[in-house]
Write a structure and sequence with these properties.
single chain; 258 residues; mainly alpha; 7 helices
Length: 258
């Protein structure tokens, strides 16, 4: 395999992440991009606050088809994110497998959990809408959306832990030197890009992007990583440590610090 072919495959893996992010962005808009409604119009909202209330308020007026396609766009394109994680690994691999593999597995684990979280919004929103429309305020039915939300946000927390730990390790790996990603690209990781996505959504309140923070952040992540890694040969580091002479070694014999 030539360096050009290998580099092209790394770039295509990055494009897989971009395409997945666009699909998830469209899914977020379908799921959570409806205008937010009030508890006066939908009594079920009176039982929730914070992120749960905002999410349900966006989903209650949406049609079943809209919610279904919003969920399916994320679930069906989820494997593209796993391909894209391989792209990030190639950006770290020249620094050594011991440094590159842990963030790869952590980020991959987070992206493997993500489709469950995304798809679960369909069932959560549909259950809340059915209960709200029925007017039944029995304790069992009233607790159902909350129980679903507990499971959904537990998985949400797990994927965020994976992304945060993987991002910190990835940044350290890049800053240490020797990765295909240059040191200045230490910020190309979810821990930095996802808050930027949240800021973009926050600056446009009440728009269709109100629930797309993670997808915007991932789109930024894979766009930046693809641009940086497109012409970098995957087998070489962008800024390897400076070689030093080993005392007692033969003339002209050098090595690099571990």
């Amino acid at each position: 395999m030539t360096d050009g072919t290998a580099g092209g495959r790394v770039g295509l893996a990055g494009i897989a992440g971009i395409l997945a992010s666009i699909a998830w962005l469209a899914g977020d808009i379908l799921l959570l991009g409806k205008p937010v409604v009030s508890a006066d119009l939908h009594p079920v909202l009176g039982d929730y606050d914070g992120m749960s209330a905002v999410s349900l308020a966006a989903m209650l007026p949406a049609s079943t088809a809209r919610l279904a396609w919003g969920a399916l766009l994320g679930v069906l394109t989820g494997p593209l994110y796993l391909v894209a994680c391989r792209h990030l690994y190639q950006g770290l691999r020249p620094a050594g497998r011991l440094l590159a593999l842990p963030p790869f597995w952590l980020l991959t684990s987070g992206f493997a959990i993500a489709p469950f979280v995304h798809g679960s919004f369909f069932y959560w929103g549909l259950a809340a809408r059915a209960i709200d429309a029925s007017g039944d305020r029995s304790a069992a039915l009233a607790a159902l959306p909350g129980d679903m939300a507990d499971v959904l946000f537990t998985a949400y927390a797990a994927l965020m832990v994976c992304w945060v730990l993987g991002s910190v390790w990835m940044a350290v790996c890049v800053l240490r030197g020797g990765a295909a990603l240059p040191r200045w690209a230490w910020f190309v990781n979810p821990l930095i890009c996802l808050p930027v996505g949240g800021l973009v959504a926050m600056l446009m309140p009440g728009t269709a992007l109100q629930g797309a923070q993670l997808s915007i952040g991932n789109l930024l992540l894979f766009t930046l990583s693809t641009i940086v890694l497109w012409k970098v040969r995957p087998g070489t580091g962008a800024d390897l440590p400076v070689p030093v002479t080993v005392p007692g070694a033969g003339a002209g014999r050098e090595t690099s610090p571990a």
